[in-house]
Amino acid sequence: MKVHEYQAKEILQKCGIAIPEQIVAFSPAEARAAADHFPNGCVVKAQVHSGGRGKAGGVVICSSPEEAERAADALIGRKLVTRQSGPEGLVVPAVLLTEKVDIDRELYLALAIDTVRAEVVIIASPNGGMEIEEVAAKHPEQIVQIHPGRSLAGADVRVLADKCGLDETQRVKLRDILSALLDYMREKDATLIEINPLGIVRGQLMALDARMTFDENALFRHPELKELEDLTQIDPLERRAREIGLEYVRLDGDIACLVNGAGLAMATMDLIHGYGGKPANFLDVGGGTSAEKITAAFELLMDDPRIKSIFVNIFGGIVRCDLVAEGLVQALRKTGLSVPLVVRLRGTCEAEGRAILDRAGLVRVTEDLTEAARMAISCAGGSR
Ligand code: ADP
Ligand code: MG
User: Is 197 a pocket residue for ligand 1 (Cβ < 6 Å)?
Assistant: First the structure.
């Protein structure tokens, strides 16, 4: 689960990190009123769950309340497309007004999970700011990574501080910041805390932007974090899937996939990719699914206008293939079928399941996984 910049900055402040004064505005009038608090100018920032806002026109420096009102009017309720948001962009529910500060230097600081080593990694660079991706690609030597392990060593802080060109006072502050953030990350099951830029303002370290991500599977332990969730930032199909109790992740292809079991779903994605197709989603209906859930999942897939074919890949273990087939037939009766459907059924009661689908017609059914994947790809217009 992601949170907005203003929420992440409030958390940073509680961890002892300086942030510029900030006010959230949900309307242009609120933005105008808030701008009165910043006589030396302010920055109006679109609040969306994405970085790259600066380059997309989502960060606007304003020198008067009128300018702030206009900037807010141009952002609130509109969609902002950034290099991270996907082509459809994210709707802007609010803007953040912050004091405009004079920045001496922009550093990069992040705490993330190194998934290969299964531990926290601290990433820092003296060259933070909007070009960080380019810095990482063209000048990897300007990025330093430290694995702090159980406790943060003074020597590690020194490496980071030296790389970032910090003086003694700033180094001590960096040490305090990092130990507070490491504690916070462990306590709240955060998977990412990114401060970019970590500015040097009047000689002090100051968080000028912040992003945080929390492990959704651990949210039951943190009801106070769950309250920070903003559903406007979640894809509508993902939201619906969550309500039905399905594991659904939107991807950028055109072959809709309905699979039972996360392992089989991953293997299905790999197979489609391997044969040159592109899945539109990851969808795991669960190991012991019911006919109702299959119907609901199928309806959800059919509501995605991007899809060119549907690939249902079910392995009947606990779930019976005939029940899955029933669920599909019910869904087909309700929604009709606007794109080709390929079904691969194996396992418990597969013959009965296939007989049900054969009677319903319309459907391409096969037992062979590779053949099924190829069929779904060719129905979607072939490999690319
Ligand atoms: P994003 O990462 O989404 O592009 P940021 O919040 O990092 O958005 O803002 C982009 C750039 O805007 C920063 O790199 C910084 O140069 C400038 N900026 C951000 N906040 C302020 C501020 N309060 N005062 C002055 N400049 C700012
Ligand atoms: Mg930023």
Answer: yes
